[in-house]
Amino acid sequence: MSAANLASQSTVSAPPGEPTLVITRSFVAPRELVWRCYTEPVHLARFWGPHGSTCPLSEVDLRVGGRWRQVMRFASGREYGYTSAYLEITPPERLVWRDAPDDYRHGDPLPPMTMHTTLELSEAEGRTTVTVTVVFDSVAARDEAARRGFATTVTEAGERLALYLETLN
Asked: 41-97 pLDDT, tens per residue?
């Protein structure tokens, strides 16, 4: 990893009393490229998930109400899949999604939300800063997600993205 990307580490904050996690990382790459990495399956499959995992399935229907489906496979062979529905898409600066049932399709009704994620990208001086804000349905749900390694998964995906971006620049 280049010195510039190595120097950038993720920061994680969990504001007391709020059901929120905020994870920020900066990359030496143009914002448009980072945006493509977060919105195109060919790129997502290369970095999404913690170290040692792979993504045997990555599907993106990039439109408001569209489905994003990822399956992570871990070294043990265990798989974890999840589905999200896009709520807002503002290329190349903002992407908002929420949890959805595995069989969700564009236009399907959605159950009450348990997790809402906003990804914001800003660019300055050749660097793109990505801020991921995740709002859970309760502080207890946020704390449980943190206990289960949610922030570690996101920060390790950021490390993997930094390495991947170097192959694209």
From this structure: 999 999 999 999 999 999 999 999 999 999 999 999 999 999 999 999 999 999 999
Cα–Cα distance for residue pair 149/57, rounded to 1 Å: 21
| Contact predicate 155/25, CB 8 Å | yes
CA distance 83 to 20: 20
Phi then psi dihedrals of residue 92, to 5 deg = -100, 40
Q: Which residue has the tokens 């903002």?
A: 94
Q: How far apart are CA 59 and CA 129, in angstroms?
A: 24
CA distances from 169 to 2, 66, 91 (A): 12, 29, 20
Selection from 57, 119, 110, 111 nearest residue 88 by Cα: 119
Q: 65 and 83 in contact (C-beta within 8 Å)? A: no
In DSSP notation, 125-136 reads: TTEEEEEEEEEE
Match 């009450």 to its residue by tokens. 112
User: CA-CA distance, 55 to 164, in Å (whole number)?
Assistant: 14
Where residue 53 falls (left for φ over 0; alpha for ψ -120 to 50; beta otherwise) is beta
The tokens for 74 are: 């871990």
At CA 47, angle to CA 151 and CA 59, rounded to 5?
A: 100
